[in-house]
Amino acid sequence: MDTDEFIAADSFVSMAKDTTFNDPNFFETTVEPLLVAGREGDLCEWLKKIGLIAKEQKCPNNECLTTDKMQWHRARVVDKYNWVCLECKKKVPARHASFFSDFKCELGYALKVIDGWCRNLPLSDVGGEGRTKANVAKRIYNGCVQVAEWYLKTKVGEFKLGGTDIVVIVDVFPGGNMSLNTPTTSHNNNFSKRVLCIADTAHVPVRVWAHLLEGSNKENYKIVEMVKSHVMPGSTIVTNEMLYPLLRNLPGIGEVISTEALINLDINHDQKSLKNLETIWATTVDACIQLQDMSTTHAEQHLCELQWRQMYGFIAFPSIIQQIVEYTAHHNPLRTPLPSIWPSN
Ligand SMILES: [Zn+2]
Fold first, then answer.
1. CA of residue 58 to ligand 1 center, whole Å
2. How far is the centre of ligand 1, averaged over its atoms, from the C-alpha of 255 (Å)?
3. Are 242 and 252 in contact (CB under 8 A)?
4. CA of 274 to the centre of ligand 1 (A)
5. How many angstroms separate the alpha carbon of residue 331 from the centre of ligand 1?
6. Among 176, 172, 178, 242, which Cα is nearest to 213's?
């Protein structure tokens, strides 16, 4: 290990010890100060440190005989720096083979857009002026969704809901109870995509697993199978009148209660239970409405994004950054593997 590498490794350790990873204001405290004009060099060093861009490059020119690493140089390019081979003068962009290499924009702009995605801001609020920029912002948003989906599918996998005496709510959109009192769902008949939604009320905010239903006549059988494979034994299931007969006798489940029975238990008949259900399903109902106009692929991606936000939303920026680093390393094995400063989860 040479001195430079030693210093780099040292800073990984100090950053990992840092509690910034759990800081909900990570973007404001750590990233934003680096986005001012004149600090492009510091920004690049930070990006190298966390692994968003490569910290070293070898000359990609096959005819070049040097074994030396490329040199980091100031340049008249958008990133203000690039890599230069001292032997053959070949240049490589600072963002080569990184998440940013697909986007023609400043690194700072890309980071701001990623932060906008993390805050679930509409694209019109983050894109900025001009059609080209808006288009880049849209592609960065799509990139974040792709990373989030990849991370959930490959790293988190299928998760289970509930557990002994934990209330799990099983419902279907549309047609179930979750959308009953929502004025925007008065056109239920226009909703062609049905979604099975399972909420674990032990999590704050409530953790929801959601899946598109295909509308085939085997649907009931599939619903039962999905509930069986995602709800832990011992859970108490609250479900709508339509699903109640299907789920009533599920083996291993503590108790199954219909929503109607639950509402009848309300003291003063104030529909408190129904109002609680509305709060629990609010973001899920929004997502289910939004996905109606999407292709099946995009609709599934949208449900994935909903789940990602429930799991990582409170520390969204450092989470997506860490996952982008892992995604890039996984999809781009040619890049020098970087030591991870991130806590494993
Ligand atoms: Zn070279």
1. 8
2. 69
3. no
4. 68
5. 25
6. 172
Other CB atoms within 10 Å distance of the CB of residue 128? 15
Note the pLDDT tens digit of each residue in 44-72: 999 999 999 999 999 999 999 888 899 99
The secondary structure of residue 129, as a DSSP letter, is S
Phi-psi region of 81 (alpha: psi -120 to 50; beta: other; left: phi over 0): beta
Task: In whole angstroms, give the CA distance from residue 106 to residue 121.
Answer: 20
Which string of DSSP letters, residue by residue, matches 165-194? T-EEEEEEETTSSTTTT-GGGTTGGG---E
CA of 87 to the centre of ligand 1 (A): 5
Q: Helix crossing, 296-312 with 131-151: angle to 10°?
A: 70
Instruction: Please give the distance, rounded to the nearest whole angstrom, from the Cα atom of residue 67 to the centre of ligand 1.
Output: 8
Q: How far is the CA of 66 from the centre of ligand 1 (A)?
A: 6
pTM for this one? 0.81
Angstrom distance (rounded) from CA 227 to CA 161: 9
**Cα separation, 130 vs 113, whole angstroms:** 15
Tokens standing for residue 342: 């991130």
Distance 116 CA to ligand 1 centre (A): 39
Mean pLDDT of 25-37: 93
Residues 6+ apart with CB under 8 A from 339: 9, 12
Task: Calculate how far, in angstroms, residue 83's C-alpha sits from the geometric centre of ligand 1.
Answer: 10
| The two structure tokens encoding residue 320 | 């997506």
90, 59 in Cβ contact below 8 A? yes
Give me ligand 1 centre to Cα 69, in Å: 9
Q: Identify the pLDDT of residue 134.
A: 85
